[in-house]
Amino acid sequence: MSYYPASIQSLIKNIAKLPGIGEKTAERLALHLLRGSRQEAEQLANSILNIKDKVRFCCRCFALSDDDLCGLCGDPARDPSFLCVVEQPADMVAVEKSGAFRGLYHILSGALSPMNGIGPEDLRIRELIARVEKDQVEEIVLATSTSVEGEATASYIAQILGKYQIEVSRIASGVPMGGDLKYVDQVTLKRALESRHAI
Fold it and tell me: CA–CA separation, 134 vs 139, rounded Å?
């Protein structure tokens, strides 16, 4: 038997469906919403409905956008000859937050995973090739994850791009800043040694 009325139980159940939210956190959030004003609850509800109604994929890079073209693709200060290929919109945001990249992006919407039935036709690889053929792309940085799937995806794309007159590079990976070598796993340490550079 529940200690809460059905309306609160329903809210807790729905909040708990969100990733990373357990039942205790969902209960705390539901009670917080109950204590807040009606206006705050309406703002939250409207913002959730707005993303369902307004958010779409950018027609060029497939980032999340409120318009046909995202803010980055529409920015004339960005370098259109330099593309960074990532798996998901969150990966693009991570690269952007670093402040180290001033080109444009291409989001694949996943990585190759034959075990899960995800092949090249399920990713936005055709669209990437179309951009290379249509736009004046000079360099592509493959910034897929360092998982088996991410590595396979990067290798596959690099192989396809081999017939074009563009530079293709892979992001470096290895020991994180401030990392202690004795705590770094063997695969990461091996990659760091293979990706070493002169100083």
Answer: 14
